[in-house]
Amino acid sequence: MHASNRILILDDQECVGITIRQMAEKIGLIAESTTCPNKFLHDAAHEPLSCLILDLIMPEVSGDQIIRELARTHSQTPLVLMSGGDRRVLWAAERSAKEHGLNVLGALEKPFFLKNLKKIFDRLPKKLRVDPPAEAFNAVVLDAEIIEQGIRNNEFFTVYQPKVDSSTQSLVGFEVLLRWFNPHIGVIAPDVFISAAEQFGLIDELTEYMFEGALRWFSQHSKYSGKKHLNIALNISPLSLDNPDLFERLTERCDFYCVKPQAVTLELTETHAMRDAVTSLDMLLSLRLKGFKLSIDDFGTGYSSLKQLVRLPFTELKIDKSFIGIATASREARHVIKTIIDMARALHLTTVAEGVESKEVLNLLQIYGCDQVQGYFIEKPLSGADMDRWLQQRRKNQEVIRTQLIQTLKSNGDSRFQDLTSVTALVTRILNVEYATISLLAGNTVTCTASVGFKPDPQDISETFCKYVVSREDAVIINSHDDSANGYQLPQSWGKDYHFYGGYPLYSKTGLLLGSLCALHNKPISIDEAGISALKQAAKLIELLIAESVKGAAGKALLKSQFERVDRVLDIIKPLGYQATLLVIKPHWQEPPHSLRWQLEKLELVLRKSCRRSDIVIRLSEREYAVLLVHNAGDGIEDIIMERVGKKLNQLQKTFDSWCFLGVDFATTKESADYSAQSLMAQLSPY
Q1: Could you report the per-residue pLDDT of 599-646, keeping only the tens digit for each?
Q2: Alpha-carbon gap, residue 585 to 573, rounded angstroms
Q3: Which of 119, 229, 233, 379 could tie 265 with a disulfide, CB 3.0–4.6 Å?
Q4: Of 140, 81, 137, which is closest to residue 108 (Cα–Cα)?
Q5: Which intervals hold domain Response regulatory (predicted)?
């Protein structure tokens, strides 16, 4: 097989392959691009080629797999590696390819210019190279006319990188990034064209162009932009702070596209934001008063002082990717990251880490308490159309998880159902409402479980109160007799009219929206902040029970989760003035009978049947149970115990063998004491 002047490019983005092909053709090479790894490997093994160009980050197959396959076939065709991710990964891949015996010509960090590619190709044998005409490189020099023409011809386009909650990976928003593909030059790096736009006084025009495209895309996704916590981040040049008219127009475009300023974060490079604190304070304060959020981009790389950071009204701090990229390898970088996060938390700033490329880095940021992350480990920047597909696939995955969750809850038997029912029963009791239900999403349907007061059938979400809660992702309280009902069309949920609705969203441990806890009443009632807090805490308890149902627990993990359940219930009742008594019941046998398991199951059954539905029955260990009895302050404790469980336990004792007896200890919450499981356990005394 003899060499030729033909090169082969593998990149999952067709437009990138076309761009590199056009660049190669300018310097006299015959180029072909493909998005198919199998075709790339086939041609690499069977076709005469002068060079292979390989993108390391692809959805179907990773670059290191391609490298290993090329090494397996003993390829000696010159290889060029390229990547838009972490440069350290690119360098590591280059070393790996060389150690596999491949003929590595060089590495390119995206985006790059024709001159960068030319420098690599200069290493090819001279007989394979053709010197490009001088005008090919002159086109790379940017001037005002080229930028203005690019704006007129819509050569600039926006891409979107998702930002997620670091602990749950739930979607919190997108960062908008501007890209430029010039048909004559190719891909032009943002730092190059932004610098040129600032130099030629075109940065505001370019910024407005980005605003328009980003807000249009964001507004078309009302199911996302309408959510309370979803946000879109736009980069602004520090030079634009001198132009208040630009931000007036931005506010107008937000109004036009029905995007609230509170859903928009303006990212400002730290270096420039801090140079003129007085001017910055005036403009940034004005933006904050309009409702926009403000972020310091690339924090840790500029010249700011802590005094200036405190003075300026930022809401978010982005940790520069230069620290994130070396976090796992550099102890100093880890110290810097942790210090920044701790400082931001003390200043009540949201922290965002950019450039997260691995699970190890994400785990580290979770430990340090970073709020949000973005990077190739989550997803690379995508075009609007590709982001639509990403969101659609994400929704499909979420629906599968929700469906599996409902099936898991159904298969876990009566005890788990009774645990959930005890929470809804507690809600009806402490809020004085007639009905309560756990509404779980299943496509466009709401499936209700553990309902108290009625047994609703699955219903279309559009016909339920649940739709308001899941769309807002926050507490929703509606009374038909006051202003809280404004803007809501009160649904006739499950065939009935209600005059009070209270709801709080439910999430999985990974941040997936599962549905809502709903409380309903057939008459208008008032609910104060303590009641809303109780509803929230009840939702948190349900989330805990759902997580236990999916994962399960045993041993110390079981005891910890049960104590957490008790703590959650105490958090619910304390603000409302209720008290609770904890009973710990433990059978004692001189010699465990062969029917031990049956005896314990019988004990649990008696406890669940004899207690009120709002009481909490938990298993502390293999042979130890506990019951949390919720009651009014001042009630006679011994009377409550005897009324609810004492009589039944006495009857049960008679059915056990003579050499077995039930030990019962109890403790009651006190207003002056800590409302916690640990506190109650420390106060236990024999009954």
Answers
A1: 777 777 777 777 788 888 888 777 788 888 888 887 787 777 777 777
A2: 23
A3: 233
A4: 81
A5: 6-125
- 360's CB contacts (< 8 A; 6+ apart) are 328
**Which residues have a Cβ under 8 Å from the Cβ of 15 and sit 6 or more positions away?**
181
pLDDT digits (tens, 9 = 90+) for 348-378: 999 999 999 999 999 999 999 999 999 999 9
Whether the link from the prior residue into 238 is cis, omega within 30° of 0, is: no
Amino acid at 21: R
Q: What is the pLDDT of residues 236-280, one digit of tens each?
A: 988 888 888 999 999 999 999 999 999 999 998 755 545 566 677
What Å distances lie between residue 171 and 341, 472, 475, CA to CA?
A: 20, 14, 19
Given a contact cutoff of 8 angstroms between Cβ atoms, the answer to whether 501 and 397 are in contact is no
Q: 222: Cβ–Cβ under 8 A, 6 or more apart, which residues?
A: 258
Reading the block at residue 512, the tokens are 């997936």
Q: What angle do CA 552, 554, 560 make, to 5 degrees?
A: 95
Q: What is the Cα–Cα distance from 550 to 281, expressed in whole angstroms?
A: 50
Helix (H) or strand (E) holding 420: helix 413-431
Instruction: Compute the half-sphere exposure of residue 54: CA atoms within 13 Å on the CB side of its CA.
Output: 33
Q: Is the pLDDT of residue 134 over 70?
A: no
What interhelical angle do 190-199 and 144-152 show, nearest 10? Answer: 110
Distance CA 16, CA 550 (A): 43
Q: Which residue has the tokens 């108290």?
A: 452
Give the integer Cα–Cα distance in Å for 289 and 373.
27
Task: For residue 28, give the 3-state DSSP assignment.
Answer: coil
Residues with Cβ within 8 Å of residue 506, at least 6 apart in sequence: 438, 440, 513, 514, 515, 516, 517, 539, 542, 543, 546
CB atoms within 10 A of CB 540: 17
Token code pair at residue 410:
């159904």
In this prediction the pTM is 0.62
Opening angle at CA 332, ends 326 and 333, nearest 5: 35
Ramachandran category for residue 535: left, alpha or beta (phi over 0 → left; psi -120 to 50 → alpha): alpha
If residue 586 lies in a helix (H) or strand (E), which one and from where to where?
Answer: strand 578-589
Dihedral sign computed on CA atoms, order 238, 243, 244, 249: negative
Q: What is the DSSP string of 360-402?
A: HHHHHHHHHT--EEESTTT---EEHHHHHHHHHHHHHHHHHHH
Q: In terms of Cα–Cα distance, which of 397, 347, 385, 341 is closest to 365?
A: 341
CA dihedral over 430, 433, 437, 439, signed as positive or negative:
negative
Angle, CA of 485, 477 and 521, to the nearest 5° = 90
Q: Which of 83-97, 260-274, 341-355, 472-486 has the highest average model confidence (pLDDT)?
A: 341-355
- The rounded distance, in Å, linking the Cα atoms of 457 and 279 is 60
Distances (CA, A) of 657 to 296, 590, 591, 592, 662: 71, 10, 11, 10, 11
* Cβ-contact 345, 351 below 8 angstroms: yes
